[in-house]
Amino acid sequence: MDGAIHRAAGPRLAQAGAALAPCAPGDAVATPAFGLNPPVRHVIHTVGPVWKGGGHGEAAVLSSCYRRSLEVAEELGARTLAFPAIATGAYGFPPEQAARSVVM
């Protein structure tokens, strides 16, 4: 999902994100949405945990990704959000366990 968002938004999104780096796993930062179509105004960037079997605090880090993203959205005054299934792709977090980690 990350790649698709960056392709759609254009190179300025990557440049803006790089200017805010590093973003620690479990944290979140926001940039303008650049080339994404309205009503999208911001992209909230978060770094999920790499799955290492579940015994290394992965669930807590994943929960923090969503919590911090919601906090950033509130700071921005966002009224709607769309979340991908964070860390379930290349980072290998099992989707079923990820869903349990984010239920608040």
What is the compact description of this entry?
By secondary structure, the protein is mainly alpha-helical.
What does this structure look like?
- With 104 residues, the protein is mainly alpha-helical.
- It has a single domain, classed as Leucine Aminopeptidase, subunit E, domain 1 (3-Layer(aba) Sandwich).
- A two-stranded antiparallel ribbon has the order 1-2.
- It is globular, with a radius of gyration of 14 Å.
Nearest-integer average pLDDT? 94
How many domains, in number, for the residues? 1
Question: What is the string of helix and strand elements?
Answer: HHEEHH
Specify the number of helices. 4
Question: How big a fraction of the residues is strand?
Answer: 5-15%
CATH architecture label = 3-Layer(aba) Sandwich
Largest sheet: 2 strands, antiparallel
State the share of residues found in helices, binned by percent.
40-55%
Q: Spans of 5+ residues with little confidence (pLDDT < 50)?
A: none
CATH class: Alpha Beta
Task: Detail the topology: elements first, then pairings.
Layout: H1 2-9, H2 11-20, E1 28-32, E2 42-46, H3 58-76, H4 95-102
Antiparallel strand pairs: 1-2
Looking at this protein, list some descriptive labels:
104 residues; mainly alpha; Leucine Aminopeptidase, subunit E, domain 1; two-stranded antiparallel sheet
